[in-house]
Amino acid sequence: MLVIGAGASGLMAAYELVCAGKRVTVIEACNRTGGRMYTDSSTSFFHPVELGAEFVHGNLPVTLGLLQQAGISYYPVVGQTWQYRNGRFTQKDEMADEWHLLTDKMKSLQQDMSLRDFLNQYFAGKRFAAFRQAVCQFASGYDTSEPGRASVLALRNEWMHENEDAQYRITGGYAELTKYLVSEIESKGGIIFLNTAVSQINWQQGHVSAITATGNIFEAERVVLALPLGIWQAQAGIERAVQLKPAVTDTTNALKEMGFGAVIKVVIQFDDLFWESDAVAALTGQSLKNAAFIISDEVIPVWWTQTPLPIPLLTGWLGGPAAAAHVDSTEDQILQLALQSLAHIFKQSPEELNKHLVASRVANWTADPYTRGSYAYDTLATSASVALLSQPLADTVFFAGEFMYQGPAMGTVEAALVSGKMAADRILNLPNR
């Protein structure tokens, strides 16, 4: 059995298969396992930092079950959420009343449409202009979606099932979960190859050949293709693109009709918790000692701290089309945008912030050739695409990835893990497997 891709979905598929006694070979193009689970534990930082997935967004059964099984601890995210708009801090959500109108209208909606069409139809006019913009920015930032393509019914399912009081971080980061799955796979006889980029998958019923960029060939009876959607949507000939031969037109179209967003994550280590100082409180007019999240109107709009841990680390987040626009920006250019955003928020100069900067990393996932984006969002075509991709090609080629998940935890590690488990279950439930 071959598994192509060692992100969360690939590792989960391999784990389930080896636990069932199958011989599994995992092939990963990158020099590490984990995919968009990427914990930087280098000595540059005071504490492991997450360049990819960071939170467990709710009481998610598969993720929390694995953590408990592995004996990996996790802890709740606590603290206050602040809004920084028009140069001032507030904890009041100025869009709260309109948001209730939005959710009420979403609940009564029968026919799916794009988010932008929905807003233009039900929240038209000058009165709702700022609200339409705010909702689109939220969907672009949080779901990394394009409002003109994003499914309202899918967003309704996600937004109305979120439990904001149940958010967790993993002690030591998602690397701990990655290490556990890798250890289990290898201890049960599974083999993992890193730095092995597959460029072509030749298949026929009952036989698969995975051909690497260097000409090596791996063969098996079946394959789980656990690659990010951005790789499938890359044009042939682009670095890290993977070709399926023979191509299946319906499969190709289904993959391309799904939504895949863009994101940039900026992690900045300072020498102290300067935002908690009395000096910053005097400048901003608010004490930020218990700040967990800051939602702003800056270029890098969303920031969070490591509370309750007293770690002088700030993480910035830019998602959706605004992040895609920086696909060719350098790490230093993005870092300067981040520092400028923080300087505005905390009433500091970028030069002053630079004096206290200890370490930084920029994860531009859309520019990453192994990923080419953030995570999936549902378009109007996604349900049909998932239904088609859930049917293996001649009981030989199986697809996995968070883009295959249909549920309220879309775009999460949970979605990837569930997808990997489902792909393995389909293989294990085949007749004469």
Counted beta strands: 23
Summarize model confidence as the mean pLDDT.
94
Biggest sheet strand order reads 8-7-18-19-20-17-21
Query: Per the principal axes of the C-alpha atoms, what is the gross shape?
Result: globular
- Please, how many helices? 15
User: Could you say which structural class the secondary elements and strand pairing correspond to?
Assistant: alpha/beta
Question: What does the model show?
Answer:
The protein is an alpha/beta fold and 433 residues long. It folds into 2 domains: 172 residues, FAD/NAD(P)-binding domain; 199 residues, Polyamine Oxidase, Chain A, domain 2, CATH 3.90.660. It is built from 15 helices and 23 strands. A 7-stranded mixed sheet has the order 8-7-18-19-20-17-21. Helix 1 runs parallel beside helix 7, helix 1 runs parallel beside helix 15 and helix 9 packs across helix 14. The model has no long low-confidence stretch (mean pLDDT 94).
